[in-house]
Amino acid sequence: MSDRAADVEQALEAAERLFNARGVQSVGMDAIRDASGVPLKRLYREFPSKAELLHAVLDRRDTEVRSAVTGFVDSHAGSGSPRDRILAVFDYLAEWFAEPDFRGCMFLNTAGELGGTSETVLSVGRRHKLALRDYLAGLVAEAGLPEALADQLMVLANGAMATAALQGTPDAAVHARAAAAVLVAA
Q1: Which of 98, 116, 122, 128 could covalently link to 62 via disulfide, CB atoms 3.0 to 4.6 Å apart?
Q2: What is the mean predicted confidence (pLDDT) over 161-168?
Q3: Is 183 exposed, middle or buried (0-12, 13-18, 19+ CB in 10 A)?
Q4: In terms of C-beta distances under 8 Å and separation of at least 24 residues, what long-range contacts does 107-111 make, across chains too?
Q5: Which of the following CATH numbers is that of domain 1-48: 1.10.10, 3.30.720, 1.10.3470, 3.30.43?
Q6: Are 50 and 29 in contact (CB under 8 A)?
Q7: Which residue has the higher pLDDT, 109 or 118?
Q8: Which residues are CB-neighbours of 70 under 8 A, at least 6 positions away?
């Protein structure tokens, strides 16, 4: 990896960690410099504004989350029934919510913090949520269930994310999974 690529990766990792822990508005480029070890001049060369850095962080997070969800479902329910694969999404959420640094969904949190002032944040968040909805729609189609179920499952998943973040416990994923099981069986 080149020095430039390493600096970009370090900056993205530090920014994601700080934005997740403190929110976007309370984190300045100096804090990202300090946490990443990337000189401020190079940081601004790669990301001319904090908004551009945030966009890159959200794009990266989108890729990571989608890959993590599909990887989890494939490894935990890959040979199971299509209905098992749907419910495995909620098992993924339970594991994610139990992580010590879980602070909620970065897309929901950032949209809540900046959504009224940043069309970019809303656009990236919508794209992410629609991609996950499309993934669920594929699982729903595999199970031969009505397409509208994908939207209902997304509401459950997003509600669980918000609830888990506020309550500080992974229990919301267990409750959302139970509700999803009822919907899938109906």
Answers
A1: 128
A2: 95
A3: middle
A4: 107/58, 107/61, 107/62, 108/158, 108/161, 108/162, 109/20, 109/23, 109/165, 110/19, 110/24, 110/54, 110/58
A5: 1.10.10
A6: yes
A7: 109
A8: 135
Domain ranges of the chain: 1-48, 58-185
Taking the whole predicted model, whether its pTM rises above 0.70 is answered as: yes
Q: Give the residue among 175, 142, 169 at the shortest CA–CA distance from 157.
A: 175
Q: Which overall architecture, per CATH, does domain 58-185 show?
A: Orthogonal Bundle (1.10)
Contact 148/154 with Cβ under 8 angstroms? no
Q: To 10 degrees, what angle do helices 50-77 and 29-36 make?
A: 50
78: pLDDT strictly greater than 80: no
Asked if 19 contacts 54 with a C-beta cutoff of 8 angstroms, the reply is yes
Q: Specify the amino acid at residue 91.
A: D
pLDDT one-digit tens code per residue, 91-106: 999 999 999 999 999 9
